[in-house]
C-alpha cells in the first residue's frame, strides 16, 4: 500500500520542475531522484496533496497506519506542513531583505523626497554624492542617525525636497547652548505644505561669538499625510563648533540681494533722468536765447534799453525821484514824475497795437476796485470774424481821473514786446475817442494767482483741485524763470507778487504787469507820505530808504 501511494504521488507531482517552482536540496516530499539529490516542489502539488489529505472517507481508509485513530489536522496546519520542507531545505532561495520603513501610505502615494544635494554634501563633508533622508517615501534611518559635523565657517545648510501630492509639514529646532548660538532661522514658514516642485530651503546656524562651545542642534520635521493622526517625525542632528569673538559671516540673504538690486536699478534710473533733464535744459537754454533774440528785435518804447542808455519808469506822484541806482552799474534807472506824462503821450506809445472797439465783447466782471475793473472778454479775429479768442480786459470806470487812466496805460506797457512762457504782456489796446481805454491780455482760465491760492486755502478740505507742496514749488520755479528772463533783459518789475501773476488749469503761472493792482488790492499797499502807494511789506530796504530798484530788489519782493 505504501508503494502504491508513493507511485500515485509521483504520477501526480511528476518528476519534472514547474514554472515558478522553488528549488531545494535534501530529501523531498515524495519520490523522484536519488536520496539527497535536487528535488522540486510546486505550490500546485502542495495544494493537491493538501486536498487529498483533507478529503473525508471511512475511518481507517486512505490514512497511514500511524495516523489511524487520530483526528485530521485543520487545513491551515496541513498547508504549513506542506510548505515546511521548502522552508527548511538547505538550497532554498534566501528570503528577501526587509524593506526600510516608509511614510504612512496615502491614497495615491505622496512620494516625498528630502535630501542634501551633491554640492551641499561636497561643501559639508567633501563627498561627491547626494545624501537622501527620505527617497520616494522610504526613510533612511541610518542617514538620520548620523550626527553631521558642520564646519565652523559654515553658517547655512540647504535641504532639497518635494512631494507629488499634498503633504503638510511642521518644523522646529532645539539648541543646547543659546549663549554660543542663536536659534536657527529658516527662509520658509514654520509650518505649511511641502512644495510640489523641486525646492530648496535654507537653515541659518549663526554663532554669537560670546563663548567657545560645541553646540548640538536638533531639527525636527513632522510630515503629515491626509490627517493629523497619520504623520511621521524626522529628527536631523547637527553639531557645530562656535568660537569666542568669531565674527558672524552671514552670506547675503535673498532680501539683501533684492535690496542691492533695487538700489542699483534706482541709481540707473536717476542717472538716466539726470541725463534727460540735462538735455532738456540745454534745449530750453537754446530756446530762451532764441526768444531773447526775437524780443530784442521786436522791442518797442515800453522796453528797457541796454545799460548805455537811460530807461524811464513812470510812477504815481513821487517827489524827489531822480536818484539813480549806483549799486548795479549795468542798470541805470531814472524815475520820472507821472504828472510829466499826459494821457495823449501815453496813448501815442500804444497806438501801434490799438484795435477797434467792435472787436471786443465784454462778459463777466472778474475783479473790481474803486476805479478799475477786469473783465472776461471775447476778442474777434481781425481777418476771420468767425474766430474768437478769450481775453482779459482791463479798463476804468467813468469816474476815473485822467491820471488814473494814464497810470493804467503806462504800467500796462511794462512787459510789452517781451516773449517768454512765464510772462503775460499786453497784446492790444482800445483807445478810441469817447470810450474808456481798454487793455487786452491773453486769457488764463484760473485767473489771478493770489485769489486762486486764497480760495484753495479756504476750501482746502473740500476742494477737488487742492494743490500740494510740490505744485507750489513748481509755481515758484516758473515765476523765478520769468524773473530771470526779465533780469537778462534788464527790465525791473518793481512789484512782483502773486497778485500780479495769473494761472491756468495746467498750473502754468505767468507774470503780468501791476496795472490796477493798487486799486484792486488796496490792503497790500501803504502810503509813506510821498503820495505813492507802495507794497511796503515786501519791499527791499534800499527801495524803501533810497527809492532804488533793481533785479535784486525784485528778488526781495518775490
UniProtKB/TrEMBL annotation:
Q: Where is the composition biased (Low complexity)?
A: 296-312
Where in the numbering of this chain does the Protein kinase domain appear? 360-558
**The keyword Signal appears for this protein:** yes
- All residue ranges annotated as the WIF domain in the record: 114-242
Highest taxon in the source lineage: Eukaryota
Q: What is its main location?
A: membrane
Give the matching Pfam families.
PK_Tyr_Ser-Thr (PF07714), WIF (PF02019)
Listed GO biological process terms: axonogenesis; cell surface receptor protein tyrosine kinase signaling pathway; positive regulation of neuron projection development; positive regulation of phosphatidylinositol 3-kinase/protein kinase B signal transduction
From the Swiss-Prot or TrEMBL record, state where the protein is found. Answer: Membrane
Single GO term (MF): protein kinase activity
Q: Where is the composition biased (Gly residues)?
A: 23-34
Residues in the signal sequence:
none
In what way does this protein cross or attach to the membrane?
Answer: Single-pass membrane protein
Record key words, sorted: ATP-binding, Glycoprotein, Membrane, Nucleotide-binding, Receptor, Signal, Transmembrane, Transmembrane helix
Which residues does the annotated region (Disordered) include?
1-34, 296-320
Q: Its GO CC terms?
A: plasma membrane; receptor complex
Write down what this protein is called: Protein kinase domain-containing protein
Q: Which organism is this entry from?
A: Monodon monoceros (Narwhal)
Top-level taxonomy: Eukaryota, Metazoa, Chordata, Craniata, Vertebrata
Amino acid at each position: 500500500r505504501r508503494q502504491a501511494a508513493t507511485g500515485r504521488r509521483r504520477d501526480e507531482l511528476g518528476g519534472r520542475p514547474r514554472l515558478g517552482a522553488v528549488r531545494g536540496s535534501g530529501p523531498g516530499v515524495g519520490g523522484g531522484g536519488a536520496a539527497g539529490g535536487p528535488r522540486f516542489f510546486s505550490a500546485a502539488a502542495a495544494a493537491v496533496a493538501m486536498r487529498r489529505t483533507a478529503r473525508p472517507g471511512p475511518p481507517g481508509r486512505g490514512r497511514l497506519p500511524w495516523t489511524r485513530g487520530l483526528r485530521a489536522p485543520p487545513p491551515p496546519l496541513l498547508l504549513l506542513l506542506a510548505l515546511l520542507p521548502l522552508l527548511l531545505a538547505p538550497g532554498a532561495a534566501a528570503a528577501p531583505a526587509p524593506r526600510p520603513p516608509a511614510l504612512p501610505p496615502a491614497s495615491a502615494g505622496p512620494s516625498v523626497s528630502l535630501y542634501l544635494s551633491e554640492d551641499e554634501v561636497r561643501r559639508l563633508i567633501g563627498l561627491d554624492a547626494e545624501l537622501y533622508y527620505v527617497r520616494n517615501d522610504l526613510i533612511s534611518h541610518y542617514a538620520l542617525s548620523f550626527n553631521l559635523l558642520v564646519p565652523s565657517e559654515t553658517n547655512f545648510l540647504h535641504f532639497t525636497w518635494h512631494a507629488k501630492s499634498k503633504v503638510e509639514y511642521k518644523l522646529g529646532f532645539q539648541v543646547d547652548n543659546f549663549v554660543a548660538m542663536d536659534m536657527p532661522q529658516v527662509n520658509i514658514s514654520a509650518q505649511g505644505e511641502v512644495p510640489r516642485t523641486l525646492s530648496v530651503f535654507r537653515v541659518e546656524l549663526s554663532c554669537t561669538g560670546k563663548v567657545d562651545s560645541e553646540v548640538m542642534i536638533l531639527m525636527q520635521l513632522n510630515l503629515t499625510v491626509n490627517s493629523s493622526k497619520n504623520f511621521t517625525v524626522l529628527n536631523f542632528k547637527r553639531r557645530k563648533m562656535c568660537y569666542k569673538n568669531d565674527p558672524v559671516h552671514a552670506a547675503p540673504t535673498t532680501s539683501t540681494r533684492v535690496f542691492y538690486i533695487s538700489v542699483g536699478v534706482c541709481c540707473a534710473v536717476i542717472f538716466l533722468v539726470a541725463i534727460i533733464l540735462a538735455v532738456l535744459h540745454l534745449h530750453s537754454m537754446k530756446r530762451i536765447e532764441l526768444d531773447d533774440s526775437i524780443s530784442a528785435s521786436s522791442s518797442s518804447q515800453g522796453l528797457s534799453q541796454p545799460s548805455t542808455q537811460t530807461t524811464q519808469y513812470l510812477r504815481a506822484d513821487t517827489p524827489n525821484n531822480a536818484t539813480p541806482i549806483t549799486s548795479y552799474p549795468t542798470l541805470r534807472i531814472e524815475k520820472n514824475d507821472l504828472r510829466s506824462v499826459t494821457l495823449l503821450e501815453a496813448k501815442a506809445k500804444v497806438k501801434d497795437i490799438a484795435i477797434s472797439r467792435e472787436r471786443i465783447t465784454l462778459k463777466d466782471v472778474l475783479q473790481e476796485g474803486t476805479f478799475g475793473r477786469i473783465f472776461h472778454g471775447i476778442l474777434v479775429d481781425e481777418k476771420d470774424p468767425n474766430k474768437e479768442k478769450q481775453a482779459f480786459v482791463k479798463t476804468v470806470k467813468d469816474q476815473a481821473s485822467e491820471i488814473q487812466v494814464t497810470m493804467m496805460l503806462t504800467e500796462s506797457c511794462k512787459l510789452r514786446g517781451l516773449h517768454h512762457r512765464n510772462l503775460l504782456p499786453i497784446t492790444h489796446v482800445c483807445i478810441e475817442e469817447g470810450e474808456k481805454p481798454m487793455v487786452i491780455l491773453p486769457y488764463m482760465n484760473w485767473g489771478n494767482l493770489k485769489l486762486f491760492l486764497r480760495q484753495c486755502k479756504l476750501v482746502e478740505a473740500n476742494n477737488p483741485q487742492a494743490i500740494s507742496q510740490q505744485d507750489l514749488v513748481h509755481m515758484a520755479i516758473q515765476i523765478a524763470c520769468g524773473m530771470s528772463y526779465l533780469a537778462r533783459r534788464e527790465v525791473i518789475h518793481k512789484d512782483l507778487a502773486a497778485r500780479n501773476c495769473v494761472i491756468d488749469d495746467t498750473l502754468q503761472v505767468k507774470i503780468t504787469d501791476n496795472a490796477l493792482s493798487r486799486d484792486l488790492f488796496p490792503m497790500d499797499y501803504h502810503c509813506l507820505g510821498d503820495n505813492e502807494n507802495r507794497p511796503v511789506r515786501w519791499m527791499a530796504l534800499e527801495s524803501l530808504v533810497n527809492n532804488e530798484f533793481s533785479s535784486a530788489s525784485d528778488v526781495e519782493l518775490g
